[in-house]
Predict the structure of Inositol 2-dehydrogenase/D-chiro-inositol 3-dehydrogenase.
Amino acid sequence: MSVRIGVIGTGAIGKEHMKRVEQRLSGAKITAVTDVNPAAAEEALHELGIKANFYPNDQALIDAEEVDAIFVTSIGPAHEATVRKAIEAGKYVFCEKPLSVTAKGCKTIMQDEMEYGKRIVQVGFMRQFDKGYEQLKQAIDSKVIGEPLMIKCAHRAPEVDAAYTTDMAITDTLIHEINILHWLLADNYVSVQVLYPRKNKHALPHLRDPQVILLETESGVLIQAEVSVNIKYGYDIQCEIVGEEGIVSLPETESLKIRHNGKQSTDVLQDWKVRFQDAYDKEIQVFINQVAKQEALQGPSAWEGYVAAVTSDACLKAQESGQREPIELESMPAFYSTERKVQLL
Ligand SMILES: NC(=O)c1ccc[n+]([C@@H]2O[C@H](COP(=O)([O-])OP(=O)(O)OC[C@H]3O[C@@H](n4cnc5c(N)ncnc54)[C@H](O)[C@@H]3O)[C@@H](O)[C@H]2O)c1
Ligand SMILES: O[C@H]1[C@H](O)[C@@H](O)[C@H](O)[C@@H](O)[C@H]1O
């Protein structure tokens, strides 16, 4: 069976996911789209050469007979209501991060999904499908460096648009580190502090950039995460884990090494779409495969969406207070406790 997908929100990542389903992945096709801006949907279909029906709103698309599964790729604040409608209709849903902009919203979604009785929600934490992070996970789990003690990581982008605000450094950007480090360590966060180094002159007046986020986990691992979104040289994701007996680092992205004019150089990527293309492909292919078999999903869960939301709430508080803020998670419902596989494909 070819999984028939309806896309809600046809902006930057909506279009990327439509393209990968139609041009690179197997087992699915895009049959329906909606967007609060119908022109965006029309443009996406035209640009990608896809024939799909336009629906006036999320509910109409979710209810359509020709839709087996939903992609929620609208803006963050719209996710919660749409995901709940999809669960209500019993349709599988892949939701981009954030699952909800509040921890309370994530809890409501978990409640709905547990009442439904099967995991049908997957959250777009694609780094769990990135080869480099999979290798880091295997290294940590094998204890080759002993127990992890400290992590230093960076999330850098060359520029952001004027709509990007100080809080988005957490909710839009750091959210990926929050999820992936929790997944790597399998260790809950207990506190966070946010520091602001000297401001980058390229940052607009309303934006505090860069930011340094200090997270601590239950077992005492200390994490120093840098978010820099005006750093000009490129889109660069770094992660170094210091253990008791060694260090393991996220591999650099593949690039030709050139020696020329007395210099040696490699390229730095400029764009998240390129940096994580394989990971996005994999997360969506995993989703499609499991929907086709009508299985309980195994990709990043609503629980992980909740953990990220609780943590980002505390980070936002720490941005304001300058103090170390506690992070308090509720215990994980047994429904979400099935062991995750590193390799899902
Ligand atoms: N996983 C990742 O790496 C990654 C990358 C980019 C974006 N995202 C996430 O994906 C989401 C979309 O981001 P984007 O960059 O594509 O944004 P965007 O602004 O380019 O696109 C969002 C689209 O959703 C539409 N929209 C807004 N409200 C809607 C609603 N209620 N119903 C239907 N459509 C609606 C807008 O008109 C727009 O076309 C965000 O939550 C973002 O955080 C994730
Ligand atoms: O900081 C950006 C991230 O690196 C991307 O992966 C996207 O999530 C995007 O929405 C963020 O603004």
User: Anything to note?
Assistant: The chain has two domains: 3-127+278-307+332-336, 131-270. The CA atoms of residues 64 and 91 lie 11 Å apart. Residues 302-321 form the longest helix (20 residues).
